[in-house]
Specification:
There is one protein chain. This protein is mainly α and 189 residues long. Helices cover 81% and strands 0% of the residues. The chain contains 9 helices and no strands. Helix 1 (2-16) packs antiparallel against helix 2 and helix 2 packs parallel to helix 4 (57-72). It is globular and about 60 Å long.
C-alpha cells in the first residue's frame, strides 16, 4: 500500500515541482514527512545527502526517500527499500519527461510568442518563492541546533559560507568541505 501512496505523492511532486529540486523541497516535505513516512530528522539528513551526491536534488531525494519510507513503515527487507527507490525515482522524473517531450516542439515553434514569454516571466518569481520557501523550511532545529550556542554557531557557519560563496572566487565544493570540517571540529571535539 505504501508504494501506491508514494507513486501518488511523487506524481504530484513531479507535476508541480517547478524550479528544480530546491523549489520542490517544501512540497516533498509536506507529501513525505506530513503523513509520517519518514521523520523530520530523516528528511533533513536526506536533503544533506542529496546535496552532496551527484545529480539533481529532487531525483536524489526521491531515491533516498523511496528507500527509507518502506523500511520506516515496517517493511523489513532492504529489497523493499530498493523497490521504493526505483519507483520513486522513475515516478518523479516521468511527468517532466513527458511534458518536455510533448511541449518542446511547440515551445520551439512559438518561442517568440508574447504568450509563451509571458508564461515564463510569470513562472520565474514563483520559482524564486519556492526556493526561498525551501530555505526557510531547512532553518529548523535539526539544521541549526536546539541550544542557543548551537544556533549561534550554526548561523555563523551559514553566514560565513554564504559570504564566501557570494564575495570570493572560492569554489562552493571547498566551502562545503570546510564547513563540514568546521562542524565536525566544533561539535565533536
Amino acid at each position: 500500500m505504501i508504494y501506491l501512496k508514494l507513486i501518488w505523492s511523487y506524481l504530484k511532486i513531479g507535476l508541480f515541482g517547478f524550479g528544480g529540486g530546491y523549489a520542490m523541497l517544501s512540497l516533498i516535505e509536506r507529501e513525505i514527512v506530513g503523513p509520517g513516512w519518514i521523520t523530520e530528522k530523516m528528511f533533513t539528513d536526506i536533503v544533506a545527502i542529496s546535496q552532496m551526491t551527484p545529480g539533481p536534488i529532487g531525483i536524489n531525494s526521491a531515491t533516498y526517500i523511496g528507500y527509507a519510507a518502506p523500511i520506516h513503515a515496517g517493511y523489513a527487507s532492504p529489497l523493499w527499500g530498493l523497490l521504493g527507490s526505483v519507483i520513486c525515482t522513475f515516478v518523479v522524473v516521468l511527468p517532466s519527461f513527458l511534458l518536455v517531450a510533448y511541449t518542446s516542439h511547440f515551445i520551439h515553434r512559438h518561442k517568440e510568442s508574447l504568450v509563451i514569454r509571458g508564461i515564463f516571466k510569470g513562472l520565474r518569481p514563483i520559482v524564486i518563492g519556492l526556493i526561498a520557501s525551501a530555505a526557510l523550511l531547512l532553518m529548523n532545529g535539526e539544521n541549526f541546533g536546539n541550544e542557543n550556542t548551537e544556533i549561534l554557531i550554526s548561523i555563523i557557519i551559514a553566514a560565513a559560507s554564504l559570504s564566501i560563496v557570494l564575495f570570493t572566487k572560492i569554489h562552493p565544493i571547498l566551502v562545503i568541505i570546510a564547513s563540514g570540517i568546521a562542524g565536525f571540529l566544533i561539535y565533536y571535539f
